[in-house]
Specification:
Length: 189
C-alpha cells in the first residue's frame, strides 16, 4: 500500500486475515512505518495476512500524480523558471497543484499550459524511474522540491530528460499516453 506522501493520498483496499476481511480506509506513514487504517482489529491478529490494494482507485490517483509532473514543467516553460511547486493534492477525482508566481495566470497562459501537457501526453513518452546518487540526480537537472532532506540515494522520475526530471517517491504511469487528456478546470489564488 502506498502511504500518503508528497500530495498523493494513501491507498485503500482490503487486508484479509485468513478470510476475515478488513477494509483499509487510508494508509499513512509515521516514523518510517506504514500504517493501514481499519475500523476494527481482526479476531486473530496473528493470522496470516494478505493485502489487496484498490487497483482502480490507485490507477486514477497515479494518472493525476503523473499529470502534476507534466503540468509543473509546462508552467515553468510558459510562466518562467521561477515557478516552483508549493504543494499538491492527487486523489482519484482530480489533482490540485499549488505553485509560486507573482500574478494571476491568464487564460492564454492556461491554454498554453494545457496545450504543452496534452502534446506530451500524445507523444506517449516512457516514464523512466531510476534510483541514483543524489549528486548524480542533481547534476542531470532533477528538481528537488520543498527543501526536503534526501538520503544519498534518491528516486528520480523522468518524463523526457529535456522536459521533466524530478525527485519523487510516488506512483506513476508507464507512459504519458495513459493520462488521456489534460484539462485545467479552475485557477485561483
Amino acid at each position: 500500500f502506498y502511504a500518503e506522501s508528497g500530495g498523493q493520498v494513501g491507498d485503500t483496499g482490503v487486508l484479509s486475515f485468513e478470510g476475515e476481511e478488513m477494509p483499509v480506509r487510508d494508509t499513512k506513514k509515521e516514523n518510517d512505518l506504514i500504517i493501514h487504517f481499519i475500523d476494527q482489529l481482526p479476531v486473530n491478529i496473528s493470522a496470516h495476512v494478505s493485502a489487496r490494494v484498490d487497483a482502480d482507485r490507485r490507477k486514477k490517483i497515479t494518472v493525476h500524480h503523473s499529470a502534476t509532473h507534466l503540468m509543473h514543467a509546462a508552467l515553468r516553460q510558459v510562466l518562467g523558471t521561477h515557478v516552483a511547486q508549493k504543494g499538491s493534492l492527487n486523489n482519484e477525482e482530480q489533482l490540485r497543484f499549488d505553485f509560486s508566481h507573482f500574478s494571476k495566470v491568464n487564460d492564454d497562459e492556461l491554454s498554453a499550459v494545457e496545450k504543452i501537457v496534452n502534446e506530451k501526453i500524445r507523444q506517449n513518452i516512457p516514464v523512466v524511474i531510476k534510483e541514483m546518487k543524489k549528486d548524480d540526480a542533481v547534476a542531470m537537472g532533477a528538481m528537488a522540491l520543498f527543501g526536503e532532506k534526501y538520503g544519498d540515494t534518491v528516486r528520480v522520475v523522468i518524463m523526457d530528460p529535456a522536459y521533466s526530471v524530478e525527485l519523487c517517491g510516488g506512483t506513476h504511469v508507464g507512459h504519458t499516453g495513459e493520462l488521456g487528456l489534460f484539462k485545467i478546470k479552475s485557477e485561483g489564488a
